[in-house]
Amino acid sequence: MRRITVLLLFVCLAATTSFGGGYQVSLHGVRNIGMGLIGTSLSYDATTLFNNPGGAAFVNEKWSFSAGVSLIFARGTFQAKDVNYQANLKHELNTPFYFYAAFKPTKNLSVGIAVNAPYGNRLTWKDDVGENWKGRYLIKDISFKAITYQPTISYKFKDIFGIGVGLVYATGTVDMNKSIPLQGATGDGNLHVKGSTSNFGFNAGIMIHPDKGWSIGIDYRSKIEMSVKGADATFTVPQSLSTNFPNNKVDVMLPLPANLDVGLSYEFGKNKQWLIGMNFCYVFWGTYDSLVFDFQTKTAAIGRTATPALYTSQLIERIGAQYNINKMIAVRVGGYYDPSPVSTSYLNPQTPSLNEIGLTCGFSVYPIKGFSIDASFLYLMGAKREGTYSPDNFAGTYRTGFSIPGIGLSYSF
Amino acid sequence: MKKILFIILSLALFTSCERKIDEFKASANGLDFSKFVSVGNSLTAGYADGALYLSGQENSIPNIMAKQFQTVGGGEFKQPLIGTEDGVGFQPIPGGIYCYTKRVLKLVPDKDCAGNPVGTVSLKPDFVSTPDQATLLGQLFTPPTVTGPYNNMGVPGATVQTLFAPGYGSSQGNPYFTRFASSPMATILHDAVVQQPSFFYLWIGNNDVLASALAGTDALLTPLPVFTQFYNMAVDSLLASGKSPKGIIATIPDVTAIPFFTTISKQLPYNSVVLDTTQAAGLTLLYGMYGHPDIKWHVGQNPFVYIRTDGTWAQMQAGDLFLLTLPTDSIKCKGMGVGDAVALKPYPIPGKYVLDKSEQYNIQERVAQFNAVISQTAANKNLALADMNGYLKQFASGMVFDGIKMSTTFVTGGMFSTDGVHLNPRGNCVAANFFIQAINEKYKSNIPQANVTNYPGLVFP
Predict the structure, then answer these.
(1) A84 contacts in B (CB within 8 Å)?
(2) What is the third-level CATH fold of B36-85+140-260+360-454?
(3) pTM, whole model, 2 decimals?
(4) pLDDT tens by residue, B288-315
(5) For residue range B110-133, what is the model confidence (pLDDT) as tens digits?
(6) Mind spelling out the 3-state secondary structure of chain A?
(7) Interface test with A, best of B126, B128, B402, B418 (most A CBs within 10 A)
(8) Domain residue spans of chain B
């Protein structure tokens, strides 16, 4: 058994993978991460509240809790086109977390709350010389994070069909810096934007258990329009130009795309020792047309700018498996392909979105019945890609990689 | 087993995530840059902001190119550096020259016609400091600190003919060459050729039209046969210098497209003289009295009056261009272009401040003829050609590099220096990259371009 475990881990780590499209982060449950991030058709703990509210009523225990965190270690390199120049993504730890709690007042009804961070982006670019990297007029650093709070209700009819819906309340923060190509005695100008916002969406799903061992899940999470009204915009420009760049409030509009997930899984073997499953996740990136900055105080130099993004919707394919070695240990492995929603003419350093392959593995240890310590590892590799952000004529080749260990706890009783 | 997992996870975390990309693969493809020599005028010398100064020279087009050549075996690139950052510019005056420093952007208090500050400020190019003639003359004629020969043979003011002029580097010649000529009677081209370049750059001819345009006339253009003869002589001499060099030559931009000629006319329409009935009648009478009854003034908008190159007076027409040197204070306060209200005389704008449409036409025609010669020479001699004329045209509506928008608009366009004629370091970098592209295209080399964001644009106060 140990040999199989090690082998699975080895396969997982040796293969190459890539980090996903856009700014969606799908690290919602350490057990799911271990299985290639599948989860839409699974219902074994409170994680189901987020993955598919339709499945929450299928969780057997009266109380169910799940919490965890992932540590995203990002690496990335940029090689400029036609210029002998490279820059790197500065190592910055990003830690999306989750917490889920479900309660079943009756056998067929479940209520709960899901809190997690399904969207985010955090990066700083740097070259060997220092802060003045070649793409600084596009982006120097950005930290964008959305946290969602989702009260959920789920009901199942017999043990065959479940439906559920959650109200999603999302809060978002954005903090970014970019240089402005207007130089004073101390160098470039700078724009710092910092703000926060909130908005509502919903998450609805159904789950079907058509036959022994089989499970089908369909889940839809709505788009959430994150309009940061009146973020603080602080300009640092030469004094002679300051009247054109007054410190200001800016409205920033960034959509969190809708997702339609379809999952299928099958449990088999002695005591359902094996589980295999697959997910198809359609991300409605097409709604992300441009990043809009609308300054409230307008001058000849600043107004409303729409930075084209022109994302296209993408289908992510995921596959995963779990093997219960015994009552104490389960091991998992999986993988997925996440194609970039960005076209080659709009590939940019703000969200260096590449076609990504993710390879995952994980395990759970059950020291006592109902309680598990879960661990996962996701290695995500962005395939090398050459592109130009044509509105700014910024061209080069990007390559990224992410090591994402995750740890979580689940308790059901 | 947990121990094994822990080890594997740790290893994965710290080692497996290197995401390298192969670095740029530079290739000369047989080109020899061990002795790169550039020949040209102020655009080649790194002259900017109305003066020759140290950091301007360090950011000259050929010096930026030479740094890139060093990735493919390029040799040292010596420039005749001047020992002042404030710089020296000059203009001829009777009996000598008058010197000044470079100009930088300053916030200058606005004044009314009586010379009193009105409380507002405007961003304008202004001299770094009050010129001290003795100091500036000393700096101008002090030989460069580094000894020659100099790879950069760019001399501000040089024309295709003066490349061959003996004595151009003497005390009676061009001070910008006098300061570094190998001997008083040496010519620019001689000092270039004796270095036996392995690769040369020749960008000459701009002053054969520009000098005339800067004087607001088309009368001083170098005649086409003269240009053709001397241009071919220059190229032939370089090619015959000994090491069978390869090289690049460049076309001459249409000078009327640069900010020096386009800026004022955007702010001051040619017909912005607004008159009432009494004024119009009075001016018509006045111009008639002074022998110009053909110049009639009307109620409403009227064009300014200026003196043509042939001495005749005319009303301006749409498309005529004011030069950046136009004394706008005299327009505003002294009636220039209309009439002197104190002396009760007509007051036409001196011709040196106006480049009218027929002058522009003649200049543009000559530029086109010169460029035909240059293109033909490149083809005949199998040299790389940088079509700077075509390239500069693309900047009329603006180009963008790494998020920096550049256009031929004065100051805000970000590529020209404060003199409105020469490029700033960022503009020089873009030009140098265009030369490199042309070399790569012609010789199938892969020389890296320079990083535009590393070169400063205009510095604002």
Answers:
(1) 23-24, 26, 71, 448
(2) Rossmann fold (3.40.50)
(3) 0.91
(4) 999 999 999 999 999 999 999 899 999 9
(5) 989 988 999 999 999 999 988 789
(6) CHHHHHHHHHHHHHCCCCCCCCCECCCCCHHHHHCCCCCCCCCCCCCHHHHCHHHHHHCCCCEEEEEEEECEEEEEEEEECCECCEEEECCCCECCEEEEEEECCCCCEEEEEEEEEEEEEEEEEEECCCCCCCCCCCCCEEEEEEEEEEEEEEEEECCCEEEEEEEEEEEEEEEEEEEEEEEECCEEEEEEEEEEEEEEEEEEEEEECCCCCEEEEEEEECCEEEEEEEEEEEEECCHHHHHHCCCEEEEEEEEECCEEEEEEEEEECHHHCEEEEEEEEEECHHHCCEEEEEECCCCCCCCEEEEECCCCCEEEEEEEEEEECCCCEEEEEEEEEECCCCCCCECCCCCCCCCEEEEEEEEEEEEECCEEEEEEEEEEEEEEEEEEEHHHCEEEEEEEEEEEEEEEEEEEC
(7) B402
(8) 36-85+140-260+360-454, 271-315+321-355
